[in-house]
Amino acid sequence: MKKKVLISSISALAVLTLASCGEAVKEGSYQQGSDGAYALVDYSESVNYSELDNKDVDIYINYNGESGITFRGTSWFNSVDGKTYTQGSILPTWSRIADLTKTNIREASGYTATSIDNAYTSIATAGYKSEVDSSRSIDLFYNSTDNLKKAGNSGTLKDLYPYIYPEGDATTASTTKMPNLYAYLKDNPSIKQSVTVSGKHIYYTPYLDGDNEVENTFIMDTEMVSKVLASLEVGDTGKKNGGTNPDKNVLQTGAYKSFIQTDTEIVDVYYNGEKKPFELNSAAGNIIDKQNQLLQATDGCTGKDLANQLFNYIKTKYATLFTANVYKTPADLYISESAAYNTDELIALMRVIKANPGVITGSEDNEVEVFFPRGEIATAIDNIYDLAQLWGVQGVDSENGNYYFAADGTLNSLETTYASYDALNYISAIYNEGLILDNFYVSSATPTSTRFYDQYFKKTMENPSFGFMMYDDPSIVAQANDSEFANTQGIRSVLPPRTYWSTEKNTAQQHLYDKNGITITEGKSLVRYYESNRSLQTTSWSIPASSDSVDAALRIMDFMYSNVGQLIQNYGPENYWMDSTLNSKKVSNQLVAGEANAIISDYTRLELASSQLDFWSFMRGYVGATHGIGYVRLKGLNLQVTNKYGRVGLTNINKAIDAGVLMHALSNAKNTATASKFTWNRSVPTEFTTSVTDTSGEWDGITGFWATNKVNKNEGWVNLVVTPYTEATAQKISDGTDETLFVIKTAKNGSKITYKDVFNQMSARNSKCLWLLAKSLGDACVPGYINQK
Predict the structure, then answer these.
(1) Are 631 and 191 contacting, i.e. CB atoms less than 8 angstroms apart?
(2) The model scores a pTM over 0.70
(3) Dihedrals φ, ψ of 244, to 5°?
(4) Element (DSSP H or E) covering residue 106
(5) Distances (CA, A) of 608 to 13, 358, 414, 615
C-alpha cells in the first residue's frame, strides 16, 4: 500500500542564518535537531571528459506542463549567479551539467502535455521529435517507467545494457561505457534486477527518492504526550470513559484485548551514542489488562484514572531507565531517542490521549482525534490499514504492491497472508473505542487530499480541531509545526513500537492468535521495525532509438551517478551550496554518516522565499535540480527539507537504526545465517520482470477486498473495521468461516460475496499470481505452501 505524494509548502526553508567562510556551519534550518553545528570541508572531486564528435543533446523533461530544463516563467533575476532568466533560458543545473560533460544541451519540450501519459503518447506518435524543432530528434526522454518499458519492448528505445555491459558478464570498470552507473549497479544488485527486463535489457536508468531511507513513519504531536504524562496531578475528571454510558467525546469502551502476552526481560535502547540493555520489571503486568478493568466497570473511569495508571505503570516497568537517567519523565518512553514502548503500551497511550481532552485542549468538552489519515482520497484512506504494522503485518508499506519477503527468503503477498485479515480485528476494536477518525472513508462535498491533516495538525480549516497521530511522510507532515494556527512544535516522527515480527520463519499461513485469542509468537521476535523504504521510483529517462547523439546522452546519464553529478542533481550547481563557488566546493560529512552533502546556502533560501513556491517546485522550475530522472536522492537533502522540529524525530530514528536498535527494510538486506540474498527485512523490487492479470476473475473477491477505491464505500476491509467488534466476530475471522455480517464486493462487477469466498480464492491467487512473480525472482523465492507444479 505504498503512497507516493507531492510536497506542499516548506516554509522552514525560508529561515535564514548566515555563516562566514571558513567557520563551522552555524545552526539554521539545515541544523539536525539541536546537536550542534556541522563543519564544512573542501570537496575536490570533479569529472574530466574528452571532447565529443557531436555534443548536442536534445532533452525532453516535462513535469505536467510546468517545469523541465528551461525557465517557464516570464522573467527572473537570480541573485545567486547574478543572471536574468527569461522563458526558454536553460536553468542553472543544466548549464552546469553541460559545462562538466562537455555537451550542448538543448530544450526539446514544448510543455504542451499536462500529464505524463499524454506526453508519452504525443512524443511516441511524433517519432520522438523535438517539440521545439521538429527537424531534431530527442536524445533523452523523461516519462514513467511503465511507458518506458513498453517503448523499449517495442524497439523504440535504445537498450542500455550493451553500453553498460559491452562484454556481458566479463565487463569490468575499465571496459564499460558507463562507469559510474556500472559501479552503482554492481553495489546495488537488487536495483539492477529491478530495472532489467526480459532477460538482459535495460531501457532506463534508476531514479531513487533516497536510498535505503525510511520514508513513512508514525508521527505524533509529542507535546500531547508530555502533557498527559506530566505528573500524577494531571488528568480530566469531568467525563466518563467506558462503562455503560460513556460521554461521546472520550473513550467509548475497552474492546481492544492485550496482544503482547509476555514482554522481554531485557530491552535495548539507544543511549549516549550506542545500544544499551536495560532490565524490565515484569511485575508491572500488562497495561491493557489493567485499563480494561477500569473501562469495563459499570461506572467506567475518568481520564485522570487512566493517565495516573499509565504514569505509575511506566515508572514501575521501566524503573531501571529512570534510575539511569535515560528517562526523565514517562513521556520519554514514547517520544525520546530511547523510546522502548510496545504495541499494547502505544494503544494504552492512545486511550489516555482520547480520555483527556481537557488536559490537551483546555476544555473537557472538546474532542481529540487520536489517529487519522491525511485526507479524503483513496490512498489516504489506506493510512488506516497502515496500523496493521502494530501487530507485525508485512506488506503494508511495501515497495511493490503488497508483496514482501519472509524470513525463509520467499516472496509472499499481504492479500493471502492470514495475519493481514486477523489484524482487522485489532483495528476494528480500537476504531470502536473511538481511537480512529469516525467514518474515515467518507468524503465531504468538496474533498481534498489533505483535509484531515489541515484540520487536525495545521488547523487551517474552517472548523479546526485537535489530532494526535498519523502514519505518513514526516518531511510533509512536520510542516504543520510552522502553521501559525497549530500552537504546537511537537509534531514529529517517533520510533515504532516493539511488536512481534516474523524474523525466524515464514508465517504467511499462521494466524496472529489462536482460538482462545492468545497471540501466536512462534517464529517471531519482539523488535522495532519500519517497512517503509525510499527506493526505486516510477519515473526516469531513456534514449530513443532515433537519437542522433547517443554518446553524449549516455555521458549525461552516467554523469548523474558520479559523486559530483549526484550533488549537483540534488542541490544544484556548486554556487548554490553553502560557502561554495563553481571553483571551490564545500560539503558536510556529518549531516548523514557516510554521505557527503552540500548544505543549502542562505542565498538559495532567499530565492526560494521570494519565489513563494514549495521547495521541490522551486528546485525543478528555477534551479533545474531534483528532477525525477535517473539519479539517487541523497538522504541529506530529504533531511534538510524537513523542518527543524520534524528533524528531531528523524534524527532519533537514524540514531536508532545506526545503533542497531531499530530495523528497517533495505533493498540489499541479506540473511547472514544462510547467505541468502532475500530475507524478511529486504525490500521487494519495485518492478517484477513479469506481470499477471486475473482475466477470469479467479481472485476477484480478494482484489475487491483490498482495492484502493474505498472513498465513500463501506465495503471490503473498511467494512470489517467499522463493523462493531465482538468476540463472535473475532472467532469467525480466525476460523475463516462463512457469514453474512460483512459487505464484500468483487472488483470487476461489484458482486457481493462472503468472507469465506475471499479465503477460498487464496489458493488460486497464490498458484496463478504469486507463484509466477516469485518464480521470476528465482526458484528459492517460491513459498512452499503454494500448490503449483
Answers:
(1) no
(2) yes
(3) -85, -20
(4) strand 104-107
(5) 8, 40, 42, 7
Cell of 512: 496472529
CB within 8 A of 558, min separation 6: which ones? 177, 178, 179, 180, 181
Q: What share of the chain is helix, strand, coil (3-state, %, to 5)?
A: 35, 15, 50
Candidates 458, 397, 246, 423; CA nearest to 343 is 423
Task: Give the three cell numbers for residue 105.
Answer: 544541451
CA 545, CA 535: separation in Å to the nearest integer? 28
**Extended beta strands in 415-496, E state:** 466-472, 491-493
Q: How far, CA to CA in Å, does 509 sit from each of 403, 416, 525, 712? A: 15, 8, 17, 32
Q: Nine-digit cell at 420?
A: 493481514
Q: Are 195 and 205 in contact (CB under 8 A)?
A: yes
What is the C-alpha to C-alpha distance for residues 296 and 332, in angstroms, rounded to an integer? Answer: 29
How far apart are the C-alpha atoms of 239 and 303, rounded to whole Å? 7
- How is residue 170 written as a grid cell? 566479463
C-alpha cell, 483: 502553521
The three three-digit cell numbers of residue 103, written as one number: 555537451
Could you list the beta-strand ranges (E) of 423-522: 466-472, 491-493, 499-501
3-class DSSP assignment, residue 404: strand
Q: CB count, 10 Å around CB of 19?
A: 18
| pLDDT (tens digit per residue) in 636-685 | 898 888 888 888 999 899 899 999 999 999 877 887 777 677 899 998 88
Judged by phi (left if over 0) then psi (alpha if -120 to 50, else beta), residue 598 lies in: beta
pLDDT in tens, 748-788: 888 888 888 898 999 999 999 999 999 988 899 999 999 76
Give the DSSP letter string of 731-767.
HHHHHT---SSS-EE-TTT--EE-HHHHHHTHHHHII
- The backbone torsions φ and ψ at residue 154, rounded to the nearest 5 degrees and listed phi first, read -85, -5
d(CA 409, CA 500): 18
The identity of residue 399, as a single letter, is E
Check: CB of residue 295 under 8 Å from CB of residue 242: yes
| H/E stretch holding 648 | helix 644-658
